[in-house]
Design brief:
Elements: E1 7-9, E2 22-25, E3 36-37, H1 46-53, E4 60-63, H2 71-87, E5 93-96, E6 100-103, E7 106-112, E8 115-120, E9 124-132, E10 136-142, E11 152-162, E12 166-169
Helix pairs in contact: 1-2
């Protein structure tokens, strides 16, 4: 049995309790102690480094503190999440707190009782069925960031099938 790792990335290390988890980063947003100090002169983000370092058996990752700051960083974080989900060979989900969930290719049974939007960052074939207002009964081609998946409403069990990573955004959550 594996336990989920707790990893604090750079500025997130300020929320670390004593020696809980692992603190990793280049120190550009945290001047305290980091267990693994990355070189600040690099062509990848601290998040990209941590995601690439995760062993394959971790298939549900929760990320906190990656939304609500600089918009360019949010977009880059979503891009890193997409790249991570795309290279996974097993079903993997990644959550940015409770606001955004990313899913690798595959079939997912979700419980959604609120409004949501479904977006992709690359052309994908998506099927959406079950207890939602706007279903895609047949595999439907969705272009990156198209409006086709905007403003849906779930009322229970929703079945998502996708051939590429997709994101569900819950706009009403804070």
């Amino acid at each position: 049995m594996f336990h989920d790792p707790v990893i604090y990335i750079d500025g997130g290390a300020q929320f670390r309790r004593q020696d809980e988890g692992l603190a990793v980063g280049d120190g550009d947003s945290h001047d305290g102690i980091l267990d693994e100090k990355l070189n600040p002169i690099k062509d990848y983000s601290d998040l990209a480094y941590v995601l690439a370092s995760l062993p394959a058996h971790f298939n549900e990752i929760c990320l906190y503190g990656f939304l609500g700051g600089r918009r360019d960083h949010e977009w880059a974080n979503l891009g890193e999440a997409h790249a991570f989900l795309k290279q996974r060979h097993q079903a993997t989900q990644l959550h940015f707190g409770s606001r955004i969930s990313g899913f690798s290719s595959g079939r997912w049974q979700l419980e959604i009782d609120e409004s949501f939007s479904l977006l992709c960052l690359e052309a994908s074939k998506v099927k959406l069925d079950g207890e939602c207002r706007y279903q895609l009964k047949q595999k439907t081609s969705m272009e990156p960031l198209c409006s086709h998946g905007l403003s849906n409403v779930g009322h229970g069990a929703v079945i998502l099938q996708t051939d590429k990573p997709v994101f569900i955004i819950y706009p009403d959550r804070t």
